[in-house]
């Protein structure tokens, strides 16, 4: 990348370039002398001002110069100090420069050149500030568009989850009271997961926190009934919501029929992480013991459907559900994602 060059000088004939450079250096401005217009144009993107002799332009092909000036973005008006002969009119061939130039007749005072250049540099600095402001506004607008897409995605998925929970709860409830109780509990669980995600600006939810949110109602005062053991794992929203719902169903089922339904029952949940290529996989085991004798369910409930159709399919997880008589066992191999799946909406 080229170093920034604030002032370019193009005056290839006579002593104008050396005199102008000397004046600017004495005023604390470091110029760069160019030998051709092509060389100067190549440096424009890193320059803040051009000092150019009229005859240098008249002797050159000016088409690229005029095109560069025409292509400037709306915030830009590249400053040009044009050195002309005293008493002469601006050559009509240079009419394209009129709105960009400060004309300085030769011979000029050193202070006139220095002041003209300093004024040009101040103007360019203001233009660059405007450019920065525009870029910041564009970035803010893009972030807003992303947030709107994310909100659309989040609300759509949440409503779909609520509808699925409602329909499944209706099918599995034997009375209105059962429906209200189970559906309310599932809504609260979903809200808890949303709260965890919102606390992290909808980025990730810790696996440990999701489990604690679902199981804190069932543990004993001395915290010996439930054991959680595993490393820190952050789940993006697309994983956290279905996994949080799954934990709620497992905990609810355990409190009704499994280890958490009796005081002596115990629940152990262990998880670890392994790598497969560029992917990380969470291996989780939910082990119950000390509860009533376990029997496989006679009908498929919402929990089983959620695990097999939502967690297994949407999260691409491998699941194992076992019903040994000594205690229910659930195992999950969950591939982790680094980013959320936010679709682009037109």
Considering the chains and any ligands shown, give keywords for the structure.
346 residues; disordered C terminus; 5-stranded mixed sheet; 2 domains; Heat Shock Protein 90; alpha/beta; 5-stranded parallel sheet; 12 strands; Rossmann fold
Number of domains: 2
How would you state the average pLDDT, rounded? 85
Q: What is the strand tally?
A: 12
Q: Which regions contain 5 or more consecutive residues with pLDDT less than 50?
A: 341-346
Assembly category = single chain
Mind explaining what this structure looks like?
The protein has 346 residues and is α/β, with parallel strands linked by helices. It folds into 2 domains: 7-134, Response regulator (Rossmann fold, 3-Layer(aba) Sandwich), CATH 3.40.50; 173-335, Histidine kinase-like ATPase, C-terminal domain (Heat Shock Protein 90, 2-Layer Sandwich), CATH 3.30.565. The chain has 9 helices and 12 strands. It has helices at 16-26, 37-42, 54-58, 63-70, 110-172, 176-199, 207-215, 237-257, 302-314; strands at residues 7-10, 31-34, 49-53, 80-85, 101-106, 204-206, 226-229, 234-236, 266-276, 279-289, 318-322, 329-335. It has a 5-stranded parallel beta sheet. The chain has a 5-stranded mixed beta sheet with strand order 7-9-10-12-11, with helices on one face. Strands 6-8 form a two-stranded antiparallel ribbon. Strand 1, helix 1 and strand 2 (31-34) form a beta-alpha-beta unit. Helix 6 runs antiparallel to helix 7 (207-215), helix 6 runs antiparallel to helix 8 (237-257) and helix 7 runs parallel beside helix 8 (237-257). The radius of gyration is 36 Å and the shape is rod-shaped. The model is unreliable at 341-346 (pLDDT under 50).
